[in-house]
Amino acid sequence: MPETPELHQILGDLVVAAHRLTRLAARVTGSTESPATWRTLSVLQTSGPMRLGELATQSRVSQPTMTKIVRNLVDAEWVKRIADTDDARAWQIAVTDKGAQALQEWRDELSAALVPMFSDLSDDELAAMRSTVQIIGSRVDLSNAASAALAGSR
What we know:
CATH architecture of the largest domain: Orthogonal Bundle
Strand content: 5-15%
Number of domains: 2
Structural class: mainly alpha
Helix content: over 70%
Number of strands: 2
CATH topology of the largest domain: Arc Repressor Mutant, subunit A
CATH superfamily of the largest domain: Winged helix-like DNA-binding domain superfamily/Winged helix DNA-binding domain
Strand order of the largest sheet: 1-2
Order of helices and strands: HHHHEEHH
Largest sheet: 2 strands, antiparallel
């Protein structure tokens, strides 16, 4: 299906709504952790260990900012530095079990904060949300796979 004005509008609205929902949930939980912390852990959990520069790029922060984030995450034992098998002088950053658990607890908190706002959904609305999540997840997974394939061919 070619891009249509309706698809363009819906995708734009979806991104804006998702960002608003995330900010609202974070505000309701009262968490003081930086969103960049959760984004960094999520990137590592989804994509696996990576070098600091790549992690900064994927987390959409500068390298000096990522250095500070990683230092704090190492202190919290949420990430660890591991030797880079391709370059003995370099390190990769990997999420630890403790970091994965903290991320899951954060996601559970976000969900719990939002449940009251969505508890009155009909079965059809809930099915539509489930379907939307599955569609978006499959497209993001395809995009990640394509990016990895492109990176590997260089």
